[in-house]
């Protein structure tokens, strides 16, 4: 294996760009000291609601060396999903990230290609790919790798493109050059906090997951509490309110990933169309979509809850 940190780092970043990633940042694989007390407090306050899996693998969430033996570097990557066209604004809404093919499939494929490239060009490198399906604190790693700062809504923000992108990682046993964090540019702005209809943003960078519309419409398997009736502003799967109102998102640019393009029907459907949706239409529109997580029955539950 060629042990040339500078050259290897440049080669990996160039290939990430070629694969369509917005940006690539690298940080040292080590225990996330600052995140440990924050995560512990968040869990103790039950801000994960019924997302019991958030309690699992506490140590692994904070220490990448427990996920990949002898790991040296965390390679963080961003992939844009901001659409060129959005849904009929008078209709029930789904979060923009779920418009097209489920991002897990799209990103996993790109990460696999990047991992193969690294082994081919650099030598035998061991590592694992992660797309929010394992105990990895993606936003913390992306911020540590200089890809942006954590906004008050707890999403990663960049001056150039706002926050409509996915975050993924490769954790590898390869020494690379590390990037440094960028400064926070939220200032005194509280647009996201003020706009959240369920008051889920309880403090700077702290979201009570159990109050978030995304939690209610995706993660919650039981009935949605009646106390939330009238608070969802037509969101039937996920929610983009805190991102839509963020001033930095005026710089969002449409993605160029064909797999993220929605079924055209999705954009034009009216409230009546959604209320009358059949399982066949659901399967057709959301064939390979992340919306499948809530299933047809879950989407119907959400529509019934948000309709007048």
Automatic annotation (TrEMBL):
EC number from the UniProt entry = 1.17.99.6
Recorded hits in PROSITE patterns, A to Z, give: 4FE4S_FER_1 (PS00198), 4FE4S_FER_2 (PS51379)
Q: Which residues form the 4Fe-4S ferredoxin-type domain?
A: 174-206
Major subcellular location class: cytoplasm
Q: Which GO terms describe its biological process?
A: tRNA queuosine(34) biosynthetic process
- Entry's Gene Ontology cellular component terms: cytoplasm
Q: Name one GO molecular function term.
A: cobalamin binding
Residues reported to bind [4Fe-4S] cluster 1 = 186, 189, 192, 246
Q: Which cofactor does it need?
A: cob(II)alamin; [4Fe-4S] cluster
List ligand-binding residues for cob(II)alamin. 61, 132, 156, 167, 214, 239-240
| Annotated catalysed reactions | epoxyqueuosine(34) in tRNA + AH2 = queuosine(34) in tRNA + A + H2O
Q: Which positions in this protein are listed as binding tRNA?
A: 221
Its pathway? tRNA modification; tRNA-queuosine biosynthesis
Q: Do the record's keywords include Protein biosynthesis? A: no
Task: Provide the alphabetized UniProt keywords.
Answer: 4Fe-4S, Cobalamin, Cobalt, Cytoplasm, Iron, Iron-sulfur, Metal-binding, Oxidoreductase, Queuosine biosynthesis, tRNA processing
Task: Name any one Pfam family assigned in the record.
Answer: QueG_DUF1730
Which residues take part in binding [4Fe-4S] cluster 2?
Answer: 196, 212, 239, 242
What InterPro entries does the record tag this protein with?
4Fe4S_Fe-S-bd, 4Fe4S_Fe_S_CS, QueG, QueG_DUF1730
Q: Where is the active site?
A: 132 (proton donor)
Q: Which family is this protein grouped under?
A: Belongs to the QueG family.
Subunit description:
Monomer.
Q: Tell me what this protein is called.
A: Epoxyqueuosine reductase
Query: What is the source species?
Result: Aequorivita soesokkakensis
